[in-house]
Design goal:
Belongs to the DegT/DnrJ/EryC1 family. With about 375 residues, the protein is of the alpha/beta class. The chain has two domains: about 240 residues, 3-Layer(aba) Sandwich (Aspartate Aminotransferase, domain 2), CATH 3.40.640.10; about 120 residues, Aspartate Aminotransferase, domain 1 (Alpha-Beta Complex). It is built from twelve helices and 15 strands. The strands form four sheets. It has a seven-stranded mixed β-sheet, sandwiched between helices. It is globular, with a radius of gyration of 21 Å. The two termini are about 25 Å apart. The model has no long low-confidence stretch (mean pLDDT about 100).
């Protein structure tokens, strides 16, 4: 089966892991600090806090923002469930706003209409690696006195109006799952230009431990002493995985270049296929193309999905609208809430997209898709 996404691991990553295993630090050591410093550079100089997954990054970002019961988070339903579930786990109410019909990105007008006096975060999602409209969303968030969060699980290395993803929103979260644009096996990160948000994020991912003596509330103990003032979790990304990440960051430019080549080639090879809509791209962004999401028209998505998989082509669907999941349905969310998102989902199909995909592999995808649609 030709996969829809796949990691790109070479000898350099293997040697980097071996070097950590030969050393003194398996976690909380120099490889973590190095990876975070290198990630900061890619993200335009923002503070970087590595964590164990993209889900952990979202949980940590919302915690750093102080999200809790009584607060509302406005976000897109066209995303993996974690964008919403991690806010809900902190006690917030998730308010879903509809997406633009062509990009599946959070619609600023819909986000604005969803604001209330309890809105604390507006969370956009860079679906497929295409940055959302952050100038418009900044205005929306500011009008509510809310923080702007960029769920950039798909878009590390992308840019919006010349600014790198990671430097645009108040908080940005990355995912380093194997199918993403770079991997640490499992892993993620929170980046922010705000030193206080970064401090809160770093403390939350380290169980909430306070080790700074000037902050101690218990002052009669010895040098071993540490305290917890607010609950956190162990979301520390170990040195072994950060070593992979550092190598992957050095390869990121090449990864993104190949993804762009594949996206351009898909457009050229599929531009004349009836019954298929190709992904939109705004003129003011440079996408990272984590996914190549086509839309199968005429109600044939299930047929084409099954036909591609039967032919050994691992297409995927991204994503079921978040509020369709039973956990949200049980909480009172109903279908029909975001019509554009639901219409997009009904047609969406992700074609194989990863740096190791060869032209021959891609020709095979195109040939099968053409045959099924004619």
């Amino acid at each position: 089966m030709l996969p829809y996404g796949r990691q790109s691991i070479g000898d350099e990553e293997i040697e980097a892991v071996a070097a950590v295993l030969r050393g003194d630090w398996l976690t909380t050591g120099p490889a973590v600090r190095a990876f975070e410093a290198e990630l900061s550079t890619v993200a335009g100089g923002a503070h970087a806090v590595s964590v164990t997954s993209g889900t952990a990054a979202l949980h940590t970002a919302y915690a750093a923002a102080g999200i809790g019961p009584g607060d509302e988070v406005v976000t897109s339903p066209m995303t993996f469930v974690a964008t919403a579930s991690t806010a809900a786990l902190l006690g917030a109410t998730v308010v879903f706003a509809d997406v633009e019909p062509d990009t599946a990105l959070l619609d600023p007008a819909a986000a604005k209409a969803a604001l209330t006096d309890r809105t604390r975060v507006v969370a956009a999602v860079d679906y497929a690696g295409h940055p959302a409209d952050y100038d418009a969303l900044r205005s929306v968030a500011d009008s509510a006195g809310a923080l702007l969060l960029d769920d950039a699980a798909h878009s590390i290395g992308a840019s919006y109006r010349g600014a790198p993803v990671g430097s645009i929103a108040d908080l940005t979260t990355f995912s380093f799952f194997p199918t993403k644009n770079l991997t640490t096996a499992e892993g993620g990160a929170v980046v922010t230009g705000d030193a206080e948000l970064a401090r809160r994020a770093a403390r939350f991912r380290n169980i909430g431990l306070v080790r700074e003596a000037d902050e101690f509330r218990i002052t009669d103990q010895g040098g071993w002493h540490q305290e917890v003032h607010e609950f956190g979790l162990n979301y520390r990304l170990p040195d072994v995985l950060c070593a992979i990440g550092s190598v992957q960051l050095r390869r990121l430019s090449a990864f993104l270049s190949r993804r762009a080549e594949l996206a351009d080639r898909y457009r050229r090879l599929l531009s004349d296929v009836d019954g298929l809509a190709l992904p939109a791209q705004r003129a003011d962004v440079t996408p990272a193309w984590h996914l190549f999401p086509v839309r199968v028209l005429g109600g044939r998505r299930r047929e084409i999905y099954d036909g591609m998989r039967a032919g050994g082509i691992g297409v995927q669907v991204n994503y079921v609208p978040v509020y369709w999941h039973p956990v949200f349905a049980d909480a009172g969310y109903r279908r029909g809430l975001c019509p554009n998102a639901e219409a997009y989902y009904a047609e969406q199909l992700s074609l194989p997209m990863y740096p190791g995909l060869t032209d021959t592999d891609q020709d095979r995808v195109v040939e099968r898709l053409r045959a099924l649609l004619t």
